[in-house]
Structure formats: C-alpha cells, structure tokens
Amino acid sequence: MADSVSPDFSELNEQTAEAWDRIAEWWDDKIGDGNSAQDLLIPPATERLLDISRGERILDVACGAGRFARRMADLGAEVVGVDHSEGFLKRARERSADYADHVEYKLMNATDKGALLSLGDTSFDAAVCTMGLMDMASIEPLIATLPRLLKPKGRFVFSVTHPVFNSGSARMVAEEEVRDGKVINAFGVMVTDYAAPYPLKGVGVPGQPEPYHQFHRPIGLLFNTCFRHGFALDGLEETTLPEGSDWVPDRPLSWAHFSRTIPPFLVARMRLL
C-alpha cells in the first residue's frame, strides 16, 4: 500500500455523523445489551489486548451507549467516553447512573483533531475504539492525535470488521454436497475487491431503519497509518468462535456458520514506540 494513499474520506464526515445520530436510539434498543458476536468475539479479545490495570485512565473513542466503558470500569479503569452522537450519549448516561464516579462522557467527534486535543496531553494510559474505525469517514485525525493524548508507551486497541473477510466486497457463500451418503454443508467467503480503500453504504444489523456509510480499508492501510504516527503493532487477534459456544444461526448465511474457521473481526493493539 503506497504511502500516498489516504485512509480518509473527509467529505463524508458530516453525513456519516448525522446518519449515526438518527439511528443511535434504534441501535441501542436493538443491541445495547450486546449480541452473540459482541459477547463471544469482540470484548474478550479486546480485554486481553487492553490488559487493564486498576486505576488506569482510558479513553473510549466512539463509545456509543457506553457498554464497553462500563465493562472497563468494572475492571478497575477510570474511563472517558467520547462520541459524536447526542442520542448515544443520552443513553450512555442513563445506563451508567451507577458509574458516575468512574465513567465520564463527552460529546466529541473523533474526526476533529482540535476537539481531541482538548482532552489534554499525556492524559491517558490507553485508548480503545471498539468497532468504530470502519464506520468513521476520517481516522487519521484520531490516530495522529493519540500520541499526544497517551502517556509514554501508551497503547491503542481497536477492533474492526475483518478487512479481508467481513467488509467491502466480501460475500458469504454456501455449498452442499453428498459425501459418503451424508449431506455436507460448506461455508465460505468470496472477496472480489480488497486492495484499495473505498466507502460503501451498508447496515450493521438486519432491519436497520436506514443505511450508513462504512469504509473499507485494507489491513496494510490501517496499520501503516498507525506506524506513520509512532505506533508499533504488538498484539493481534483474528477472532473465531470458541469451541462449545451456543451461537444459534438466525439466518441461512449467519456468521454463526462461518466463524469457527473464518474470523469475522480483527482486534489489534498498537503501542507507542
């Protein structure tokens, strides 16, 4: 991936933020308490890589309704959650009434470098962005600012839909064959357009009232953007479904069929050099 390729689509910043604000309360009603993908594949890997120590101060970027912010507080962290959606923050504050001493929420767009800098230099031990980067039109303002917000050797953990298998042009496919007198189902993913970044419109949850912009960025572009701003990759999980889990497919091509062998999500830990 050439250094000249930008990871950003800044012309869509405002449109993306507005769409999320319109669906925030619907989204929280639908999966505010989590779903199988979140419970089994995303938080466990994020917690392992974040490796929270009691008393650490952590920035939760694109915190939504605060589910992971509250989880980090339960693990002993002091959390500042930021999100550009008033709707999400309203729900976050309602859901976090018992966490007022450990979680603070701020209205802030993570594409706004000046707003991020107002949080203060070397204010955080770590930062986390849970399933947010692929829904942000611009990610460089955040990644370029984090080295100032984090303490020396600070870490940044992010999770995204896997750029190879679960974003952009990826299509789920299924085949059926008879083998030794038994019907065998095989599930896979077909990818037709991976190497260049591009925006597309999609939905995160079936039944979503309106689509929003999502942003395909290949792995090299994501990582190189972090490397360019002083981070090194020192932890990575491509999450697959644990053995013995009871995720029940809700549709013929649900990820519940695939995710023992194909990772739907990627979770990475970047650390300041």
Search tags:
single chain, 273 residues, alpha/beta, 7-stranded mixed beta sheet, two-stranded antiparallel sheet, 9 helices, globular
Structure description:
- The protein is an alpha/beta fold.
- The protein is 29% helix and 29% strand.
- The chain has helices spanning 13-31, 36-41, 43-50, 67-74, 86-95, 113-117, 140-149, 219-228, 255-258, and strands at 57-61, 78-83, 103-107, 124-130, 150-161, 171-179, 182-190, 198-202, 212-216, 231-239, 265-272.
- It has a seven-stranded mixed β-sheet, sandwiched between helices. It has a two-stranded antiparallel sheet with strand order 6-7. Strands 8-9 form a two-stranded antiparallel sheet.
- A hairpin with a 2-residue loop joins β6 and β7.
- α1 (13-31) runs parallel beside α5.
- The model has no long low-confidence stretch (mean pLDDT 92).
Summarize this entry quickly.
By secondary structure, the chain is an alpha/beta fold.
Number of helices: 9
User: How many beta-strand segments?
Assistant: 11
Mean pLDDT across all amino acids: 92
Which strand-content bin applies to the residues? 25-35%
Element string (H = helix, E = strand): HHHEHEHEHEHEEEEEHEHE
How large is the radius of gyration? 19 Å
Gross morphology is globular
Query: Looking across the biggest beta sheet, what order are the strands in?
Result: 3-2-1-4-5-11-10
Q: Give the termini separation.
A: 22 Å
Sheet with the most strands?
A: 7 strands, mixed
Helix content: 25-40%
Unreliable spans = none
Structural class: alpha/beta
Helices, strands, pairings?
Blueprint: H1 13-31, H2 36-41, H3 43-50, E1 57-61, H4 67-74, E2 78-83, H5 86-95, E3 103-107, H6 113-117, E4 124-130, H7 140-149, E5 150-161, E6 171-179, E7 182-190, E8 198-202, E9 212-216, H8 219-228, E10 231-239, H9 255-258, E11 265-272
